[in-house]
Amino acid sequence: MTATTPAPSAPVAAPEPPVLAAVDVTKHFAVRSAVGARSVVRAVEGATLDLHRGRVVALVGESGSGKTTLARLLAGFYTPTSGEIALEGVPVRQRRGRVERSYHKDVQLIFQDPFGSLNPLHRVRHNLERPLKLHHGVRGKAELDRRVRELLERVALTPAEQYADKFPHELSGGQRQRVVIARALAVEPKVLLGDEPISMLDVSIRLEMLNLLDRLRTEDGLALLYITHDIASARYLCDDVVVMYAGEMVEGGPKEQVIADPQHPYTRLLVESSPDPGRGARDRDALFDADADGLGEPPSLIDPPPGCRFHPRCPFAMDVCRTQAPPRADLGDGRWARCWLHAADRTITQENE
Amino acid sequence: MVTQFVPDTDRPDAGTTSARRADGDVLHVTGLTVEYVTDGDPVRACADVTFTLRRGEILGVAGESGSGKSTLITALTRLQRPPAVTTGGSIVFYPRDGGPAIDLVTATPKALRALRWTSLSIVLQSAMDALNPVMRLGAQFADALRTHDRTLTKDAAWARAAELLATVGISGDRARSYPHELSGGMRQRASIALALACGPELVVMDEPTTAVDVVMQRQILAQVLRLRRTLGFAVVFVTHDLSLLLELADRIAIMYAGRIVELGTARELYDDPRHPYTRGLRDSFPPLHAPLTRLTGIPGTPPDLRRPPSGCPFHPRCPQRFAGCDTDLPELVTKGGHSVACRLHEPTGRPDPVPDPASGPASGPASARTEGGAS
Ligand SMILES: Nc1ncnc2c1ncn2[C@@H]1O[C@H](COP(=O)(O)OP(=O)(O)OP(=O)(O)O)[C@@H](O)[C@H]1O
Ligand code: SF4
Ligand code: SF4
Ligand SMILES: [Mg+2]
Hints:
By secondary structure, chain A is an alpha/beta fold. Chain A has twelve helices and twelve strands.
């Protein structure tokens, strides 16, 4: 069988400026408990991320680590508490918590749930025509028909005529998710943010979606953010991986290096915990050897551990880890990790933020 | 406390349905058929399901959504509710103590109650389904423990609850907590500890770790395996995640449209999947470390069981279908302990033997895709 990778990772040529960039973005939510006590959820802390044309960045991490919050920040649905998001170098301005409509024309977010995100009362055609009219002022039945057909063909829903007149509930989960992607494409965005776009789909049809996203990157040069908790699918699709833990980005770099040779203890735990069909049917006891004491929980984001947020679960934790947040250490070849094990000078007292 | 598990030897006659000679087996399921009987046509969500579960074994059941996995689980544990009806088959349970075999399908509610917790227990995807939200954890454990052993005092039961929680990494003082005071992962572990409280011989798990993160999943399963080594219970583990089962299970049953289409050891299913659906499913999981190749998944979508396809239920999506697949239903045929329901592997199936594309020495998930099998 031919062994072509889904998309050969683009060579790291002269760095083109990113289409979308987050610089030191933080999001805190004020919440009030049932008894009225106020507290702050530190959902995303100091996130920095570049999305480039024709490249896919995978954002991986456990639930509650801030992946969706970051996606919503990038999509303009939340205002950062601090830090900046820039589209093609221009900082995004918000007025009364809203970005301008033109922002959504360039940056589209697709959600996990292919059931909730289409208007169930309208046929596929209507769901696709709306963004065409709204963002591109497409008028006239013939032109609309042509564009709807084109969109459905791009997401491989053919014959298009047959799908255009169906209601969302008449489609399978995979077909619906393709309509959701077609609707995002109708806007002709430069950036597509996918928040767990395949996790609700049946295993056998997930590949189709990943291959479709891959085509959008290679053929249309979209910049993609692929959010997932499934590292194997991230490796299949993406160029670079960024790992989040408890609201912070802890490691990033080219996918193969990060996955084959994780430098942050959390990344290592995540990779080792992920099922790998390639190593399947091996010694079971070696694959499942955690002891009961090792059962760690992700920390509360209201009162995160001081220092490195991973320290209560980290087998390598040192004294410094319990008091000071580790700086971001550059490891060469585009790799970096935020861990004291990699800080050049461990006596550094100055925080990196 | 708990009786130490004595590992049983491999019996040559494993798989026999003779009630007297089942000492190595916990369960014989034969021809089990479950239908949802509603206004329209009945939906057959489990059709003619047959398998044997050995003592202390982990049997994985993998399939896509709607393939009948949960239906099978609720039927096995007799927790099924209308409109589900068992319309055929038997589920014969062989108690460890050598007591008489019991067919769970025809057993009285009283007989079933006597088995619950002590012989047979269940873990569901959402721990909230198993835990009572208005009872402290310790009280729920005490209830289960005291139905099993009437002589146990309340204090002793609470003490035992704390011990059991500790085995899944929850500190004993959490026995005083209500379920909602625990994190999702802790609740799931508590419900596993509860299922194991009375030393059952068989634990049935329906997607027990689908709602938790991979790190927590691995830790929970490590605990289950550790406890299984000392207690010796058998597990039926249902999930859509075949890549997990390949690491976890002794044997795996693949379900499609309510039927078992293949059953073999984890290694057999990975190295030499015989059913085209199994092969497609295996090749739907990108590897984490092996070289990447382009994967295609399986074209089409799983069938709607309200209108099941004729003949082989997989034929509309099968890359290797041939004349007759759309009319003839293949039977599950066992050869050397490896069972498959596909006409390619029936003795009288296709006149010319079909080369198995996955049996080459270098077969991996990626090298094994068949091309142009549908001719
Ligand atoms: N209460 C019900 N009434 C009618 N049909 C039902 C009912 N519950 C399930 N079914 C049908 O039975 C079939 C099998 O369902 P089941 O829940 O056993 O599948 P599953 O393999 O567990 O799927 P999943 O992976 O989504 O959990 C499906 O076609 C489903 O629609
Ligand atoms: S900074 Fe310290 S606690 Fe944090 S991951 Fe590194 S070694 Fe572990
Ligand atoms: S019986 Fe025919 S259609 Fe069914 S899996 Fe085998 S080859 Fe494919
Ligand atoms: Mg189910």
